[in-house]
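Archive transcription. Copying these from loose printouts into the bound notebook so they stop getting lost. Printout 1 of 2:
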Amino acid sequence: MTSLDSKTQIVVVGNGMVGHHFVEQLHQSDANVEITVLCGESRLAYDRVYLSSFFSGASADDLALTTPAQYAEWGINVVTNALVTDIDRDNNKVTTSEGQVFNYDKLVLATGSYPFVPPIPGNDQEHCLVYRTIDDLLAIEASAAVSKVGVVVGGGLLGLEAANALKQAGLDTHVVEFAPQLMAVQLDQAGGTVLKDKIEDLGVTVHTQKATQTIEAGDTCRYKMVFADGTALETDMILFSAGIRPSDQLGRKSALTLGERGGIVIDNHCVTSDPNIYAVGECALWDNKIFGLVAPGYTMARTAVSHIKGGDAEFVGADMSTKLKLMGVEVGSIGDAHERTEGALSYTYLNQPEGVYKKLVVDSEQKYVLGAVLVGDTSDYDTLLQYALNNIELPEHPESLILPSSDAAPALGADALPDTASICSCLNVTKGDIISAIEGGCCSVGDVKGETKASTGCGGCAALLKNVVDSELEKRGVEVSKAICEHFNYTRQELFHIVKVNGIRTFDELLEQHGEGLGCEIVSLLWVLFWHQSTTTTS
């Protein structure tokens, strides 16, 4: 750091979710710095996780994570449409495509990634698009208005999100995947099969083991995709979502050390081969790994802030477990989902009529959780994740953790979790942080959210957060509401009976008749489970 009478000049290249998180954390740290943000897009940071909501009515403003007014209030100099083209490492300067020059003491590269488009002849035609930015969404919307059939190339997490976007845009939607199954990174073969069935039940046609060789003029549609096996598929629009590549061009051009397959190499402090340059998020390569989830990027951002301030925080990798909804289908993947650990054993549960598949992977002595796969019902995700992350010993019958209505399944209450247990992985909030917030005067889930920011990222930890907060408040003699959340003044069991007795068929109907506001992640995650249980019991 520089002397107290002069501020360290911090230039941040990129203003995606991770770049914005770095800015937010550095601002809140009260460091003696002056921050300049160079944003390559015309818009400031927005939530890429929920891009598909654009096609169900969300606006660009709804997705925004900040505003120019907010940055101005924080005293941050921000420049949009500022594509950085050069780094002068000898003189600590960066130059944009418009010729603007900015000096820095510390430079933070948060340039993210770009969509990988397979080198298929014909992939550069007018209605061949990618799914990454709001501008991409606008292009998809325009193409959808003059199209009837859409194809997504790629059946991974991003590909299925893109398929959801096309489906919501009103197109006859297909997914083309080179691998034998969907989401091959996160799911095993059985889980991928169940997911494929559920996706097709929703009206999306899935084509696996298809290698596109050319994109030609179509006979009945705009284009024809010709596959290596001799078959073809006609479509009006093609949306490439076949993975990402790190946006490491600046690092390459300025001779920073890069990985063999790309990515700007960083150490445990997120420092590159130049001690004055940091890299965070999907452009960064740590231990030869690129982390494609937002939570590890947030951890990198906090680590870089700590190092700039002289702290000792380190980035030592990240848990890549994930829970999400793809076109309304619940999917969860934890740890060693593919049983690659030597001696690993597994328990599986398959309910084909309801489209529910669960696999629990344990060590050879059946003492600890190594991984899990959940498709169609992720209600066990939080419990299994805590077993895995905190090395909590398994009960006598591990299979009870994934079997429905199992009396043998022990409840893993909040008290069983150590203070170091991660409750919110996006914002790195532990149980200990929540306890500290309560001891500091927080008296509700809302108070704890405001103090710690827990559950303000993806929202997937909302139910677990409520359990921990309620447990800690009850220990202190505070009367706790049994309402499932602030939007529904009922317990989980009461809400289930409402769904069952009244034959409620949609979440919107439940919210309109018995809730208030917009609802939240807690109840929306339970909705599928409620509906399956109520229809099964009444049939």
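Printout 2 of 2:
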Amino acid sequence: MCGILGANFEVDFTAAAAAQHHRGPDHTGILHFGPFTLAHNRLSIIDLNESANQPFVSEDGRYAIVFNGEIYNFQSLKKELEPQHEFRTHSDTEVLLKAYITYGEACLDKLQGMFAFAIYDRQEDHLFCARDRLGVKPFVYVFKEGKMAFASEIKAILALLPQRPGLNSIALSQYLTYLYVPAPLTLFEGIYKLLPGHSLTLHRGKMTIKPYWQLREFWQHPATVSFDTQADQLRALDQCLNDAVAKRMISDVPLGAFLSGGLDSSTILYYMHQNSSHSISTFTLGFNEGRYDERKDAQIVAKYFKTNHHEILIEPNVAELLPKLVHHFDEPFGNPTALLIYELTRQTKAHVTVALAGDAGDEVFGGYPRYHGMQVAQQFEGIPGVLKSALKWGSQLLPVNTSGAHQWRRAKEFLGSLSMTPAQRYESWVGYFSEPELARMLTHPVAYPHPVRDLWEAAPAALDPVAKAAYVDLQTFLPYNLMAYGDTMSMANAFEVRFPFLDHQVVELMGQGSARDRIRNGQTKILLRKLMQDRLPPEIMAKPKLGLNPPMGIWIKTALAPLLADYLSEATLKRRGLFHPEPIRQLIADHHANRRDASVPLWGLMMLEEWMRQYEPVTK
């Protein structure tokens, strides 16, 4: 887990490398290699010796690599390569480089891990870069008139550029829709994100980007299931999960697990326990607000597996943390769970440097309530339009809770979306500001792509609504939201988080399942529950989903109230010139009057204002 950086034009790299120092405080290396300058900030996890520092150069001096992430199957891959290569380190970096030297771009098919890397061949003047299949590790770049720069974080690229780029108005609309900016755009004009599962080559001045792995190939139709019985399916999943966890436990520094007491994190802990002869260190986040606290459930699991358990009680100063979050994201980012991951990894760092987490369990196994909602909505497709309109009107009479209870909000969203197409419905459920709202809010509204809606409409037609929702989330919500804050907030604290459920073999296997493997009679994660039913405490198996969410509705009205009044004041909005003040004023009034739970949208707007203050992009 590190920071990578490179450019093929002359510029002082010192400030750019320093901008990513938090990602890798153990060593910073800068190498002038042909027309490229490569830099690397190292967080030492595998092979702590200096010989494994980067940039790493092949023995013949032809290739150099900068690499961020972990190749979990590097040991078996190394054995495959040993007949052809000698190895001078025990690092996965050297294995990755020699896999590329041996197999070329096809090396990507052999990698099991999370990664973003760049390899330069100075004999052929050929740069080869890639990002892992599901977008755990970031890769951003600029390219213009043959000049190219790439990095792990936008701030490093900004340090290389002669002037600050302008604000991307299309990306702004996407941010306001989803409260994250989907790849390939960033909020800066001309700076792009490489899509997950894609490679980038620069050969003698010509850039090519193409996919090397696509979810669509594995999530086609449940009729492709190759299992004779569900017992076979469970055995395959058991083996796959055990392998994914065991490989992610390889570390030369202390390692632990994040434990919420829910099904996902408890499943990860079960497999860690199966693959360890020592007590596992576990870490649970706690709040004073009882609705959000999961410490009691985590204690049950920790006692069951006899872990070395730690409880981290946080009372974050959210007004103080907001600028820090924006600084590390380099973009506004509207999911307030990022606050919790920042605090969790910051305090866990005192005990371990690496932790396994249960993120992506909902997407892979079918855990979100909205998945069940799409399944139920399908049953309403045949009712008359006049009845759908009546239900939408009636939904406005339902009460609103701004303190974190989501049941009424979900009911209102469900009833209000029945007259929409499935693609529009799902985007409305995962979105925040609709297109009509943006037309009223923005001073200069623009047409923009809707990746959630577009992916839904382009998904394999035979997928059931639950699988289709997961299919969309795995390519949008997961990489650009969950993994974005997972990487950014952990690396802000020089901490590594690993996600076994995102092993591509696990994801591919679950693509063969049907709706009955995910949700049945309102019960979620059916297949995973069957696998774990005799392996976890019964209280955990029966526990309803809670989710890792801060009490943002409470904070907006208390700790964040002064900041809200400043950041979204009429004077501030007029000075920026992006929004008409009246719709924002109305949004705040609706929230305080309990007419709408706007806590997360308001947080997203505050993040945008803080980003404008820190980065001051050129606005048109």
